[in-house]
TrEMBL record:
One of its GO terms (molecular function) is electron transfer activity. Its main location: mitochondrion. Residues 30-234 form the Electron transfer flavoprotein alpha/beta-subunit N-terminal domain. GO terms for biological process: amino acid catabolic process; fatty acid beta-oxidation using acyl-CoA dehydrogenase. Belongs to the ETF beta-subunit/FixA family. It holds the Pfam family ETF. It comes from the Eukaryota. This is Probable electron transfer flavoprotein subunit beta. GO terms for cellular component: mitochondrial matrix. It is found in: Mitochondrion matrix. The electron transfer flavoprotein serves as a specific electron acceptor for several dehydrogenases, including five acyl-CoA dehydrogenases, glutaryl-CoA and sarcosine dehydrogenase. It transfers the electrons to the main mitochondrial respiratory chain via ETF-ubiquinone oxidoreductase (ETF dehydrogenase).
């Protein structure tokens, strides 16, 4: 029997383990990807999403009952889940997808289908009414997963959020007001629970996980599913093939000129004028 929301909201925050933003990216030896044998961490936009879910609960203590984080990937993905738990999430779901099971990375459509199946499975116990995730991952920069997930769920969506406000007690139909970053300014949209929100950079500044919270996170529950448990073995196979990855050309040094005439001559020589 499907659970229902009763005056308290369960929030799902999908997070991704990505190459750390401070790492210098190097092309892999096969020329079809990048070297992944480097430091990884939580995708920064997803870190903002976790922080916003925690802040929403701090502002609406009677409305939000539970914050659940989910990540799909190899066992190492549990590291970012534990980080999210230390930041304030209550429980975690790990969808185990070994590196060797895929010829490439998960594409946005595959991730959205995994999240849809995860929501369906979680709803058997306690219904999810709000999904907050980063607007994009810093590795593929696709910025598609949130929109695709909203489409598959047939839920309203608010993307590139710079402010989120919840009114009500977490019931279905309660209003969520989202201020969005748009070209040339801000836009404000309002919708009802359930809905999908993607977070922008200026929404908040994520907190650091304290040592006591890191220790507490080790005791918080983490469910583990295989992709076969969701029945999506074929659905997650890549539809695109990466043919070649190469570094951008090195920048050439500039040339100094003595006067305007010499500048014009150089521009003509380069075919710019």
């Amino acid at each position: 029997m499907r659970a229902t929301l009763v005056n308290q909201l369960r929030v799902l925050v999908p997070i991704k383990r990505a190459i750390d933003y401070a790492v210098k990216i190097r092309v892999a030896s096969d020329g079809k990807g990048v070297d992944t044998n480097v430091q990884h961490s939580m995708n920064p936009f997803d870190e903002i999403a976790v922080e916003e879910a925690v802040r929403l609960r701090e502002r609406n203590k009677d409305a939000i009952k539970k914050i659940t984080v989910v990540s799909a990937g190899p066992v190492k993905s549990q590291d970012v889940l534990r980080t999210a738990l230390a930041m304030g999430a209550d429980d975690a779901i790990h969808i185990d997808i070994p590196d060797k099971s895929l010829p490439g990375s998960l594409e946005p459509l595959a991730v959205s289908k995994i999240l849809k199946a995860t929501i369906d499975k979680a709803n058997e116990e306690e219904e999810i009414g709000l999904v907050i995730l980063g607007k994009q991952a810093i590795d593929d920069d696709a910025s598609q997963t949130g929109q695709m997930l909203a489409g598959i769920l047939n839920w309203p969506q608010a993307t590139f959020a710079s402010k989120v406000e919840l009114s009500g007690k977490g019931d279905k139909g309660d209003k969520v007001t989202v201020t969005r970053e748009i070209d040339g300014g801000l836009g404000v949209v309002e919708s009802q629970i359930p809905m999908v929100i993607t977070t922008d950079l200026r929404l908040n500044e994520p907190r650091y996980a304290s040592l006591p919270n890191i220790m507490k996170a080790k005791k918080k529950p983490m469910k583990k599913y295989k992709i076969s448990d969701l029945g999506l073995e074929k659905e997650i196979q890549p539809r695109l093939e990466t043919l070649k990855v190469s570094e951008p050309p090195k920048r050439q040094g500039g040339t100094k000129v003595e006067n305007v005439d010499e500048l014009i001559a150089k521009l003509k020589e380069a075919g710019r004028i």
